[in-house]
Each structure stands twice: as C-alpha cells, then as structure tokens.
C-alpha cells in the first residue's frame, strides 16, 4: 500500500471518512488471542479499516450474530488436480471460504515447462481468488521417466523474483537433497539468495535424513502420516500441513499430534482435491471442519488455516480480521461443529453466498499450453507384452491410497510369448506411452485389483510426467483409447468393444479444461457410473485417480513409467518376468 | 547461506563429515513443540547441523543434563541507555544470554543524525553480538525542542535497504500517525515500499486511535501498561513486548494478559537498561526469569524471547535449536525458576562462561560522533529565572517512573524578580541548554522532589533531544557543571561549592563511552553514593536517570525543553508564573 491509501484507512478508522461497507453485529474470530469478540467491522478500499471508531459506510450487512472469520489460505495445492482452469477453480473454491491459495503448478510445468508457469501466472492474475505460485522444484520429478520439460536453476531465476512467487515448490527429490546433489543444490540456492521459502515433500523422513532435509532450508512438509512424524518435523523447525486431499487424507491421522503449544507451526492444505470432492465436501473448510468435529479448538483450527499460513508465506496483508488486512472474510452461522460459509468476501466484495459463486472470474485464453501429444508411431503393436516367464511381477492396487504392492502371479502366454488375459483373474494390462518428445517410448506391465471385466480406460493425467496411461484387457480397446486422447489433446476416455463409452476432454496440457465446474463434475459422475456399471471397475477404488498414480515412481512400491517397470523400493527398473 | 555451505551442513547432519563442536547430553528447549528433549547437538561452521545422525566433532562439551536454549533476542532496545559503545555492550549482555538485539539508535541519531546511524552500524558489525538497527523514525521526537538532527524520508531511504536494518524504529509520534500527517506518512512509506517492519510506541492508545495506528502498518508495541491494553493490541494484529527496563518495568503488570493461546504474539524487550541493571540483574534473561518465577510456562517464556522475535523480525536463521539455525545457544542448569546462563555460544563459539565474557568484541574508533557541544554564549546569566509571580508551576518528580506531576507552589523572589532558593523547601532550579546548533537557547523552570540540599547535577543525556540539563540550588555550581560538560563533550557531572564531586564522561555523542562496563558501573556507583551522601538527593529516585527524563515532552505532565516549560497534557508551552 502507498501512503495515500494508508492515510485513507487511518482516516476511516477514526471516523473522518466514510467506509464502503460495514458488517454489523458480527462475532469476530480473533486468531491472535484465539477468542471471539462482538464488533461492527468496517471496510474501505478492500481493506479492514477498523471497528467502533468508524462512523458510516455506504453499504451495510447485518451479520446478526454470525461468525466473521478470516478467509482460508490453502497452504499447498495443485490447481491442476481440480481439472479446472484457474478462473473456474476460483469460482469453485471461493464458495468454500478459500480466498488465498499457495499453488504449485508442478503438473502443468511437467508437461509444458515455462509456458505452463506463464499461463498459470497470467490466468490467475486478475481473478477474485488470490493465487500465489511456488515455482516447481522437480521438473522432471525423477530421471526415470520422460516429462515434457526440464526446469533448472536458470529457469527458476527467471521467475522467482515475481512477487507472486513466494519460493520453490515441494522438493520431492529427497534423495537428491540428502546427497546434496549439485543440480538440486543449484535450484535451492535460487531461493537462498532471495530468502524465499522452499516447500518440502518428505514422506516418512525422520532422524538424520530429516536433519539433512531441514538443514537444506526446507521449511514445510505436507506428507506426514503419523503424529510422531509431525512432532519430529515441527521440532526440526518445519511448518507441518494437515492435508485433506481426495486421495491423501491426513487430518484425522495427524490431529492427535496437534497441541495448543505447537499449533502455531501447523497449517492446513488440500494438495490434490478432485472436482467432485470440492463440490460435495468443500475445500480447506472441509479439513478445518473435520479437525473441529474431532476435537480441535475452533479458534485454533481457524488460526492454523489463516494466520499461520500468512506468517509462513510472509503474506503480511492477510490472515486476520484486523486493521490494514485484506477484507477476505467468511460469514458462518457456526464454528463449533465445522464451518459452512454463508457469505464470502474478497477485498470487501461479496463473492459467494450460500455456496454459490457471485463474482465469477474472468477467463484467460490458454496459450502455448495445449495438450502436447507428440507421440511417435503409436500403434496397437506398441502394447505388446511378452513377460519371458509365466511367473510375473504384478502391480497390486491397494484401495484408499496411491501406494501399490509389489506382487507376483502365474499367467498364461501364447505361442508368440504374448500375455493372455484370463477372465477369472483380475489381472489387466497397463501401458504408458510417452507424449512429450516423440521418443516412441511405450512400456507395458501387469496390474491387479482394478476389477474391470472388459474394455479400456486411458488418461493423460499420469503423475508426475503425465504421459498417457491406459489399462485394459484387450489391445484393440486400449489402442483406440490412446488414439482418442492423442486426437483431442488429452483427457480421460473409456472404450469397450470398439465403442467410446465416455470422454472427459482436458485440453489444457491434457490436465485441465476450460469447462465450468458443474459440467466437469457432471461428466466425471457419468463416467464413474459407466466405469462401474459397464466396465465393472472395482467399487473400492476411483477408476481414474487410481490410474493417475500408477506411473508415479516416487511412491512405493511398483510403478510403470514410459521407460519401464520401476521398483521404487530399490529405486531401479525391473523385469516383468521373474527368473526362477 | 550459499549452496556450498548448506551442502556441508547436509553432509554433517548425516555423518559424512566431521562437525566442529558437539554439546552432549543436553536437555534441548524445543520452542516449536514447547517441550524439552534429550539430545547431542552438533555444530558446524557456526550453524546447527543436526542431532543423532552426526558422527564426530573436533570439540566436545558435556552438558551433563543442563538445558540448551536458543540465545535470547532483545526485540527492542536502545544501546545508548547502557552508556556503552556497541562493543562494550556486546561484552556486557552476552554473558546474560542475549545473542541478538533489535536496537533503535534513536538517542545517538537525535544528537548526531546519520553520523550516529553510520557509527552504530559500523561499530556493531564485527562484534560477537548480532545487532540489527531499526532506523529511528522520530528525529526529532517532537517539534517542541531542538535536536541535533532532522531525519526524514530521504534519509530513511538511504539506509533502510541495508539488510541489517529491519525497518523503522518506534513511531512515537502517535498524534502524527492519527492525523495521517504528511511527514510521518512519507517516513512510513519507505517501510511500506520494502515490506519492512515498523515498530510502535503507543502508550495507552486503544480503541479507534489504535485502529488508526494499526492501519498505519505499525506491528509492534512495547508501551503496554495493562493486560487489557496488551489484549487489545494483540487483537489488532500487533506483536506486544513485555518490557523490563531499568525505569519502565512491565513484565509483572502484563503477565496476567499472556495466555498460551496468544503467547505467539508476545515478545520480550529491555528498551532502556542502565549499566548497573545489566550487571546486577541481567538483561533479557531478567525479564524472562521474572515471568517464569511468576507463573509463565518456561518453554512459553523461552519461545517468546527467541522464536517469536525471530518471526516478528523475519530472522529466519535463528530463534530455535534446529538444523540450519545459528548456533546461538545458552546452557543453563535450570529453567523452572528463572534462567542463569552458565555458558553462552554465538555461532558455535563459546563467548561467555559463568557470567564472564570470553569473546571480547573488537573496538571501533568513534568517528563523527563526538559529543556535539555547539553551545552559544553560555554564561551563568542564562540561568536567570524570573517567574513573574510568587505563585508558580512546579515540575513534581514522581518516584518510580518518568511521568511528572504538574504542581504549583508559592516561592520567594528578589527585588530583581529572581527566584530565591529556600532551604526548607525541596524546590530547585532546572535548566535546559541547547547544545546542537548554537541557538543560544536556554530555558529554566522549577522542580520539586529531587531532595538535593546544595550543589548541582548536570547531564547531556536528556531524552530525546539530549540537550544539557542541569539541576541545582545555586547558579554558580549549575554554571560550572554545564561548563564542565561542554569542555569534555558530555557526560554526567556534579558540583558543590565550586568543587567537582564526580564526573562520568560520555564522549560518544554525550551519551555513551568507550570505557568498559566495569569502569562505567564503578564510576556510576561512586557518583550515586556521592549524590546521596554529599548532595542529599532523594533516595527514592535515581539522581541521574530522573534528570534524563525531565526534558522529554512526550511523557506527561510538565516538562522543560530548551524552548521552555511544556505542558504535555495540553501539548503546548506554558508559563512558570501562574496568573491569578
């Protein structure tokens, strides 16, 4: 703010000039003392001016004793996981009370590199939701796959001075940090030089490895799974996030580790939330409500989702209901049993009411981020799978998470050595087809637990390199599904007996769409129903999300990249056929 | 840190390289979880590398179960009040466990302007104590007196980008902030532009005035006097400091307002601590110990004096015992009943033991900060006091503070109208002589309660403009005392019957000396004794500190500046003689 705008606030605080808006009779959540107080809250030029000393306002809203809460800050999320463009994401999460997000465009940058960063910055610049973008630190996520881009220290240096870039996104390469790898350190140094944040990603890392990770200046983690792990990370100086995503849900696991004494070091985040989760359950407010319902003091929970994130990311202009803070506010009837926003304000403007967006975000035409489909010589023949043995390694799906089992099975092979699908066994073929650089790479493997009886499902969302991944019992449907995605620039599609059963187009990088939330969820709901009823996919798993994580070589135990079957535990490639 | 030094820490944390020092068998104060844990703490290159994973160290210290605490951070102090140069101040406070100070060179800058700022930066640059300097926001403190310099936005802009300048020092001109005065706003804007801190000074300011003050972006206050005031300021988003200075002591007053829930918004500071207070009682550790003895949880108190201050001033490299933080550490036998440091470490080097400094700070020759004594035409005649009435206004000293009463008395006057001292009345003459610009200004007034029977006491410490202030029963001794200070460039001196009873020379700006702490306290102790025994000064007051605050026109109720008698309550000059 400049002195003129601050002078106006000072004048307004003391009743010398009129405010724009007053919210009367509110029970204000004071996240600094962690208590509630009754007040009229005055707003001028999008900022909170003050309380009792202000005299008049052009507009008045009677809170009638409802709670007035600072807007929620999502401390870490990937907008891409919503399948929505930033503008549609804004429309989707604001009604949930989220007014600021610290987003990591890790997915789109893994597909489109700096074009993705530029698009995300531009598309999120003039929308109601306040979006900060951490620069992705791990593009590619690992050297064991082909991503669409490689972003190193030079690229980081180009972008990290942007005031909307608070630092480096989640550093997943914890072996690289532990070994003080040169490329990793060069990336980190760009943040050191500017005293900017570095987000962490350190699942199950404790003890000396965690000391090394913390010594690298990484100050947050959202991958804790136990209260003990949370406690250890807090001790080492990190801010720990309670994550409540669609697949990864840690709030209830971690809650026993949160005390009033350490709560100032704890934040909330959503990480990856699917569109249906946002529509049905909410966004940050869902995690906050879950924590409150399970015994966390409401004011402590609210402080974690507001003030603490503002402190962690140096956002000194928000996070509390106090003079000179942004009037990013939530009005809610109750805070003692969860928080359902009735009205949401951003910079003093009412942007949502009763769960519906009012201030729709302006749309930005995606440029240079079309779904890259540089697939070389794809044909059905690329899906060939000849294990070399009847005894094979199998990726075992474990419902409720993204970790897989490293299983084995006995199969049948044809005279040509090709795997033969057996109806009485729940084993299917999985293939990953490289789509960024025309390498012609395609790799196949076997997977168990998906449940599908007949047909194929394919998607261009395949963490973290987002090549095309396809699952099926027959090569014809699989090939058609892959070809469909190539032709439309990415998305999710299903085929059975040569017939297209449903397609969800994701024309932005093969990850996101410009369609509005309602259409996206309608399409996905229909496709889920079809997947279950017509393809027979296991009800215990999400047919599409499960598939998305089968190519992620940083999560145990057995995964498939475009380069082959990968044993995460030994961090090396392996064979399908087991040599006896 | 650069990537090479971080890589070394990462290596050390995991035992790949040897550390410099290990402190074994410590009970480490974890200020993030607010609990104690047992560990060996390894240090490399002045930073904490880690705990169990480190293998060996060149040097080993056995803590034998003692507590290992992060070094204390004084969130606000004026080094000048110690009478010591920065190097001697370092030697004085480090044994108390203070390892970082946020100092405001408000006093020396009021005398010497930017030369004072430059000297303080230079003199504190290469000493063991880590010194940050807020740029003084109020030079002069008020327009009702002559200070040695005027520092405005242009001067702030020259210095505020220095990484050792975290922002603007205490904004005492709260009426100027409340009215959004142009000069004040121009100063504040220099901090806004750079997102730097602005310290506050808002005694008894609450309600709408406080909203306006907070709206100005002022984020700390160390002038709270009641738990209610603390609570209100925390609610408005400010960090509140528990101050324990020599004259102003707020820890016990404010403690009832500190709860576990709001403690993350509370810091400790010393503001003004005299050398004897440091020697006898300690520094930040004194306030911390007082709070603990009076019921504050030890870990909460420690977090307030370490982590909270680090967060408030964006000092991300300190404030906790964790990897990659500076090894600024205190070893102490006990934390449950106050904290007495046995050893103090700064950047991993043992700098004090058993209350004695080991790492003496290198001395910096003061340049351009000699005690400015540009006094025009001083003579005894300047001390003339002709009230114009027998009924006069009298400055009433109130022991135990710096506030005075606005009293009245009946006096005797000679034929020439001159005030005549009466032995049976405890009324003395007070004079302030301008010393910065040769204006020739001198003003006199009457003061009651000092107790001195005969003689004169003068000092060049006279907050905040630091002109010469002198008190006495006769003009001869008063004139000699003033002349003495002019001749030596400032200090404190006492005369009786033409004889010099003692002088404490303060050759740096008339405020500080290059002498070591022991000599300063010895000299002051002797002078205190003389003042009491030979001059008969009231035992209930400090003879010198009391005098220092009689020219401070921002503290009620009646004060004397070089421009005349000042009624602080009406914020205007007044007459000595009362017109009936």
Protein architecture, described:
Two copies of one chain form a homodimer. With 580 residues, chain A is α/β, with parallel strands linked by helices. In chain A, the strands form seven sheets. In chain A, strands 1, 2, 3, 4, 5, 14, 15, 16 and 17 form a nine-stranded mixed β-sheet that branches. An eight-stranded mixed β-sheet of chain A has the order 19-18-23-22-25-24-26-27, sandwiched between helices. A three-stranded parallel β-sheet of chain A has the order 6-7-8, with helices on one face. In chain A, strand 6, helix 2 (86-93) and strand 7 form a beta-alpha-beta unit. In chain A, helix 3 (106-112) crosses helix 4 (114-123) and helix 5 (153-159) runs parallel beside helix 7. Chain A is elongated. The interface between A and B is large, with 65 and 65 residues.
Keywords:
homodimer, 580 residues, alpha/beta, nine-stranded mixed beta sheet
* Poorly predicted parts of chain A: none
- Which structural class fits the helix and strand makeup of chain A? alpha/beta
Share of β-strand residues of chain A: 25-35%
Q: Distance between the terminal alpha carbons of chain A, to the nearest Å?
A: 71 Å
* Structural Rg of chain A: 25 Å
Largest interface, chains and sizes = A-B, 65 and 65 residues
Helix content of chain A: 25-40%
Oligomer, anyone?
Answer: homodimer
Number of strands of chain A: 30
Biggest beta sheet attributes of chain A: 9 strands, mixed
Mean pLDDT of chain A: 96
Count the helices of chain A. How many? Answer: 17
Net shape of chain A: elongated
């Amino acid at each position: 703010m400049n002195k003129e705008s601050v002078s106006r606030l000072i004048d307004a605080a003391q009743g010398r000039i009129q405010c724009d808006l007053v919210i009367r009779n509110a029970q204000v959540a004071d996240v600094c003392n962690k208590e509630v107080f009754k007040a009229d809250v005055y707003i001028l030029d999008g900022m909170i001016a003050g309380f009792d000393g202000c005299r008049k306002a052009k507009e008045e809203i009677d809170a009638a004793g409802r709670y007035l809460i600072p807007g929620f800050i999502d401390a870490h999320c990937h907008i891409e996981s919503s399948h929505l463009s930033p503008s549609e994401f804004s429309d989707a999460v604001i009604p949930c009370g989220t007014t600021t997000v610290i987003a990591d465009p890790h997915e789109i940058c893994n597909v489109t590199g700096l074009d993705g960063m530029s698009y995300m910055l531009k598309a999120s610049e003039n929308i109601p939701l306040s979006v900060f973008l951490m620069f992705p630190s791990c593009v590619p996520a690992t050297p064991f796959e082909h991503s669409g881009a490689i972003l190193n220290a030079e690229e980081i240096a180009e972008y990290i001075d942007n005031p909307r870039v608070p630092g480096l996104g989640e550093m997943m390469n914890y072996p690289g940090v532990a070994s003080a790898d040169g490329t990793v350190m060069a990336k980190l140094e760009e943040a050191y030089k500017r005293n900017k944040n570095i987000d962490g990603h350190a699942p199950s890392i404790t003890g000396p490895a965690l000391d090394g990770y913390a010594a690298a200046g990484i100050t947050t983690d959202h991958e804790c799974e136990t209260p003990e792990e949370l406690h250890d990370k807090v001790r080492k100086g990190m801010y720990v996030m309670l994550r409540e995503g669609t697949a990864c849900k840690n709030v209830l696991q971690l809650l026993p580790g949160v005390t009033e004494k350490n709560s100032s070091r704890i934040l909330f985040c959503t990480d990856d939330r699917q569109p249906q989760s946002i529509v049905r359950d909410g966004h940050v407010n869902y995690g906050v409500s879950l924590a409150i319902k399970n015994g966390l003091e409401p004011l402590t929970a609210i402080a974690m989702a507001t003030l603490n994130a503002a402190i962690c990311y140096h956002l000194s202009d928000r996070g509390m209901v106090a003079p000179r803070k942004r009037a990013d506010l939530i009005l809610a009837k109750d805070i003692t049993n969860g928080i359902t926003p009735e009205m949401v304000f951003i910079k003093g403007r009412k942007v949502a009411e009763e769960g519906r967006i009012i201030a729709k975000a302006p749309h930005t035409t995606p440029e240079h981020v079309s779904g890259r489909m540089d697939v070389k010589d794809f044909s059905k023949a690329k899906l060939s799978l000849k294990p070399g043995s009847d005894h094979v390694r199998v990726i075992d799906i474990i419902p409720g998470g993204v970790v897989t089992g490293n299983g084995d099975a006995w199969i049948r092979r044809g005279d040509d050595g090709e795997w033969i699908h057996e109806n009485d066994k729940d084993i299917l073929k999985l293939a990953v087809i490289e789509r960024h650089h025309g390498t012609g790479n395609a790799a196949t493997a076997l997977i168990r637990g998906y449940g599908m009886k007949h047909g194929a499902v394919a998607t261009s969302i395949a963490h973290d390199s987002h090549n095309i991944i396809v699952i099926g019992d027959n090569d014809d449907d699989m090939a058609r599904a892959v070809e469909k995605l190539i032709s439309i620039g990415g998305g999710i599609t299903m085929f059975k007996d040569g017939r297209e059963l449903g397609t969800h187009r994701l024309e932005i990088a093969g990850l996101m769409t410009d369609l509005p939330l309602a259409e996206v969820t309608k399409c996905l709901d229909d496709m889920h129903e079809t997947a279950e009823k017509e393809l027979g996919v296991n009800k215990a798993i999400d047919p599409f999300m499960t598939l998305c994580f089968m190519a992620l070589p940083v999560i145990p135990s057995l995964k498939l990249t475009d380069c082959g079957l990968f044993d995460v535990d030994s961090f090396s490639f392996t064979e399908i056929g087991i040599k006896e």
